[in-house]
Automatic annotation (TrEMBL):
Residues 25-37 have a biased composition (Low complexity). Residues 25-50 are annotated as: Disordered. Keywords: Mitochondrion, Ribonucleoprotein, Ribosomal protein. One of its GO terms (cellular component) is ribosome. This is Large ribosomal subunit protein mL49. It comes from Podospora pseudoanserina. It holds the Pfam family Img2. The gene is img2.
Amino acid sequence: MLRPTLLPSRLLRQQPTLTPLLRQFLSTAPSQPQKPSSSPPQSLPRQSQKTYFPFALGRSRTNNYSVYQDAKRGGNFKLTIIKKIEGNRIAFKQELAKALNLSPNDIRVNSLTGHVEVRGHHRSEIVAFLEERGL
């Protein structure tokens, strides 16, 4: 005697149908024909043109700039150290010297670490310089 076979339950279930929104998205024909407008298209507001620099500055995990103040030689020699500079560090040094009105001798690039060291405590001015340029 033959036993009736049972169909697996996955074959008995119906396949879900596509929702109207998904069906509209997947179709190639446009759902609504676009009417030609009699008024000219309005122009979008111009965004300020962003100037591009040959350098970029990375940020810390807390989304802050990596600008630190340090004191050496018993506290008499004050430094501001800028870390995480990518790109042309010499161009960054020149822009920074121009913006802070410092002589090029007051700013130096450490070739081993890639940090830029500025004589004196100038953290607030440097952060303002970086925010102004959107780096």
